[in-house]
Amino acid sequence: MPEDRHGLRFSLDASAEIAPEGSPNATVAARATELSLRGCYFKLASPFPLETRVLVKIFHENEYFEAKGNIVHVTPASGMGVAFREIKPHCKNSLQQWILSALHNHNTEEEEASAW
Question: Is the full-model pTM beyond 0.85?
Answer without folding.
Answer: no
